[in-house]
């Protein structure tokens, strides 16, 4: 893609009204644009990253037996009245139709998926089943000031699984826990599996936390076994409850949260199945959330330097940033790369070397390829994370870049 085709507009300086590293860099580099507190447009570069993150999440959810659907974001108030959460869910955004009826803007989807499953589940033969979506969620967050980390409108993957027994639910829970570990590994994030507030070590229910100063949670985590516990629930012991190791305290952000759902929603919506003996029983369920847009912010918080973002290859908007200095020297290299499917951003602007290099560092594509009078028929390839580049032939560049991105 050529620079102009991508509608990229980088800013000379970070916006003054943004406080967090992720919102500063993402805005300055042209990935997102702020509309209001906690409300952002994903510009073409940003959407490309978000889609890569969401594709990885989808792949692993499908592998774990999840089936994708898409539920509405507009929820009739009756559904929320039924669970009592119309009044008790603090961050619920409410709106009225001019033609009658009140609605919630969906912050989570138990109120929708339970009655929906009533149409599909009647017998034990219909179970287990697991459905997920990736969708825009709404929450009336009090403090929406950390860029993509805490938004009023954000993206979430939510999976719901339904089972005949708690044993089957726990078996599935374990497979999703493993799928989450795979997802975060592919995203380049080191996660600490943390017991959530209210949870104990014996109970299933956990958060996936990433250590970063930008996180709002304080956790204790064990350097030995890697497990953690949210400070909110931990009463003073200094040792890890799993291995006895020494606990460290750190700031972290919750990127995912998985837990079994109590019988409450099944009761509220009378979601039952007939077992083998014809007895009617309440359906067991689990719920598994992962904030895909928060993940994008978290990646930027973790992978950056003073010059800009350093994207992991798996989610970078492009693999190579082709920088042309001087006359149209990049055209041949660009066409060759494009022909073999390398994802390249071609900076063919009429701008100075300094400006182009600064933008390449700011945007953070894993490889920078420079073509100039000085490089002759070769290309100077440099990793974003390293200081020096190397001269090589275009074929070598393609091999290196393709090899690493697979
Ligand atoms: P937090 O404690 O950070 O407010 P939560 O426990 O309310 O999060 P869940 O209801 O578990 O969040 O939602 C699932 C996932 O959605 C979270 O793990 C997080 O990654 C993401 N998420 C939740 N709230 C927001 C938000 N306001 N902005 C961006 N992502 C969010
Ligand atoms: Mg949570």
UniProtKB/TrEMBL annotation:
GO terms for molecular function: ATP binding; proline-tRNA ligase activity. Pfam families: HGTP_anticodon, tRNA-synt_2b. GO terms for cellular component: cytosol. CDD domains: ProRS_anticodon_short (cd00861). The keyword Aminoacyl-tRNA synthetase applies. It catalyses: tRNA(Pro) + L-proline + ATP = L-prolyl-tRNA(Pro) + AMP + diphosphate. Its EC number is 6.1.1.15. SUPFAM superfamilies: Class II aaRS ABD-related, Class II aaRS and biotin synthetases. Keywords: Aminoacyl-tRNA synthetase, ATP-binding, Ligase, Nucleotide-binding, Protein biosynthesis. GO terms for biological process: prolyl-tRNA aminoacylation. This is Proline--tRNA ligase.
